[in-house]
Amino acid sequence: MNNPFLTAIFFLPVLIYFAVLTLSIVLRKGSQKRAILTGGGSSGHIYPAIAIGKSLEPEVNKFLYIGGKGRIEEVVVPKEGIPLKTILALPYPERKSKLPFFLCGLFLGMVQAFFPLLIFQPRYLIATGGFVSAPVIFSAFLLKITGLLKVKIFLHEQNVTPGKLNLLASSIADRVLVTFPQSIRYFGNKAVLIGYPTRKFIKHSSKEDILKKLNIPSDKMVLFAFGGSQGSRTINRAIVSALKHLLKFKDKIFIILSCGLGQSHYNGLKDIEDYLKNNFSENAISQINEFFLYKPYFFNIDEILHISSLVVARSGAGTLFELSSFELPSILIPKLGLSNEHQVMNAMAMEQAKGAVVLFERPTFENSSIPSVEGEVLAKTIADILFSETKLEEMREGAKKFTVCPDTYKYTKKIILQGEETKNEVSTYSPFLKLKPPSSLLHFLQNQKEKEKENFTIENHFNVSEINFYKSITLKLLSSRNWKEKNVGVKLAAFFKTDDAKKILFKIASDREIAPFSRRIFGEKFKTVAFLRRNSFISLKEYSLSDTELHRILKPGLSDPYYETRSASLSLAVKEKEKLAGNREFVEYAKNLSKENEFEVAKEAINLLGKIGGEEELDFILSFKDHFFWQVREAALLAVSSMIERGVNFDKEKLKKELLKFNLTATDYKPFFTIKQNFKKVFEMVEKN
Description:
- The protein is α/β, with parallel strands linked by helices and 689 residues long.
């Protein structure tokens, strides 16, 4: 290059690289004693990172934590005496439209992580997941392949099924440390089973001292409820709504609630205070305060667990293993909709070990976007466990089974510092069930019902906990704004029948809210699409309906503008014929609908007339003997047979004469038609009477 300026531009990056490389080599001195910890968004990611870091002492004694800005790690990590740097981190988006924003955030996070990684020069990087880990891991990998960092990258997966970012990050990690044997298949040869690194709590010698410090009478049983560091609206509201049912036990129990340090969209402390103020009198609140203590967060959670007899919590892996280490019975309320439903799988595994009872949250009927657990149900479950020493002891033993081998820290240290792999040395009680996603579940149930016919029952295929989970998922789908998800929920509701599902089916089937103009110009009159209304009527056939419910739902169905919905509602009416027999209002509905051009509606209407009509409807039914559609003529023949079976009076000779006038031909091309066989059967029935 003859141009000095171009030469400088060409060589400047090279000079900068070698300058930075020289600096990194200088800073690298003593790097074997340094480790960076990362993972955040919730304490379930933070504490395992800290626990793994502490297990490396004294060989590694210098730590730096890289966490997300504005998150719980800014509170927790400094209390552990570890320096903290924060970066921008965004969760992996559910919608593809938000992917560009995520990628921009990931890039900025990598840039922010670049400098502390370069300056600190760690020999070890311990990442425990949460979306904050991804930019740190990717940045460290780039520094590593460019020679600017000499680091080993270790990823710890707490749950059975990894999230998207952990799967992606595992491709560049040196080792993936897993909690459960079932996780190994996701990571191949990189996976090493170590169990769960729980925090090393101080074992307190005196419960009495802790109870005295918290001003709790020593003769009361302690219930501790928490929803993680950020708090859980579901658990908070379930506990406070359970208080009115637990007031009668205020002399026997004491309830402690950690309501959360707060989220951008939810303040647990304010929510609880507002609920108490709006739902209890001053006298009741005074009584509640005698056995109820709530705070945003208990940093001395080991003390609370030490004095507790029962815990109500979410079911992250960290929570379960800490409960197991304290041999504590629990009522678990897993958060639905997380990656691969890992909290549900965790909770079911603890329940199978007999260490927990699982309650599933469900959408609130009035506000489907806010899931809930009924306070009365929770209160009953609490009382059933707390006041049964046999049950408590069985659950303590079950919780104890869930514990990982106590040498987890020793194995982890060997793997990270010495590169050793320990196989078959860690045993975990983890009988995880493989849960079916909704579409696969629906396909499976439809196939099984077709195969087994009258012998089909849900109980033959799933245990109680699975059924309860699928009921909750059904309600969640029914409340979805996505029509595809809602449609799966409508169909699943025919199998997992609950009162709440019935209410939502009623709402969908009878919804007459006018659609936006953009949809009306394409022919859709109502906001709820027509096939959802139709499918709701089909599912309602599987439910037990009262006379009032039946009348209320049939009227909008029989007048629905979509002919398939009218046909489905007529089919429901036929199924409930005993409740409509002789009802003149619905007889008139059927007569009017039988005149429709859509033969599906006409034949169902005539079928209904045969089930609920009287002698005066016989001539009307016979008038369809020359109908254009052979299916309608056949329906008329079958309606006549229904009337004969019901004992409706008729003139034998006149009826025979009219039957002989039936057109038994068909316009369709088929090798076989049932209309002639049905005519023969009906005629024989008339002859015998």
